[in-house]
Amino acid sequence: MAVSDRLPNILLVGGAGVRSGVPRHLEHLSDSLRDVARVTIASDVDEGGFDRLGAAHVTVPGLATRLSPEHLFRGAAGLFQLLRNCPADLIWFHARLPVLMGRLLLVTRLWRPSASVACTFHGLPFDPGHKPAARRLSLALEKLLLAYSPPMHLVFLTNQMKDRMMSAVGAARLARHWVHVLENCSDLGNLPQPAASNGRHLVVTGRVGWQKNLDLAARLLAHLPPDFTLSLCGPGTDAPAFCDHIAALVPSDVFTRIRFVGPVRDVRAALMAADAYLLTSRYEGTPIGALEATEAGLPIILADFEGARDMTNLHPHALNLRFRNLGDDADRIVSLLDRVSAGGAGARRDIRAIWAAHWSPTQFTPAARAIVAQTLRPSDLAAE
Description:
- This protein is of the alpha/beta class.
- Helices cover 41% and strands 16% of the residues.
- The chain contains 15 helices and 13 strands.
- The protein is globular.
């Protein structure tokens, strides 16, 4: 490989700036590319999602997904200006709205980049779990964009996600582009010792909204034994309106067993105080929250969204539940936690071993660098 004295410039375009999966993924990418590129991240206003970022950050209001014409226009105009003035060698879109906006600018030829262009699908917008009208519109848009946009690099979180895209849009549309798979990772760093607690404790990490389906987590708690407690961590989970909503949904004795934590800058303490991780989402890509729980050595309990079984089949102590009979589901959760408790420290070590083999930075960094090497001209990539 030819060696250049100049590190390539890479622009990663994200969406919302809250503490959620895409900002964490962008942090992992910037960390993995630090020695081989100059990385800049663009997103909507930083609301804590990038407070540990080791790369430059540019604010573009309007990139968070929100169905407001004024918001969408502001985001499209700001993104257009950024792309026109950005001296990048690779422009890599992430998050649903930027992935859509960037490709629309390409299809309409309003933007004619000299840089390489990539986009990552952090989940397919037409997967089951999305609202039916949104699924139909998203699939039609994907077929249009893949058929008419200039060839670009498409990155999927799993081979299964890539295969679902091909099945939905047709192999010919996908064959116009370069296709890559980059598995998500987690990187919590040094972990504290597990915290002793009375009873059994479940933790959920995720913002309030349709996708995360936190109502279901609260209703599930009502079917679990009274020694179970539940922590809801994430943007909006400590909002009075949300707390009042949950209070109206479950009996008062169940409500008192729920902790409304709100955004958490460092999730390690919450994970190490839990007995299991719960995710009731209607849809996901590869949820980094579940990977972080695996890194912490926790059993995971996932709803039956597309891709959930890919994780639970690898994880030695995991459940994939349809949540159609919450009483039966509660019994399975109790059995899982009893089994893990009987395994002691060995169970936690087995879980962490799976994380290390599949979802650690050791796996992620060389894979991310390999994709960058394929998207850039060889002379643009610094020697590793």
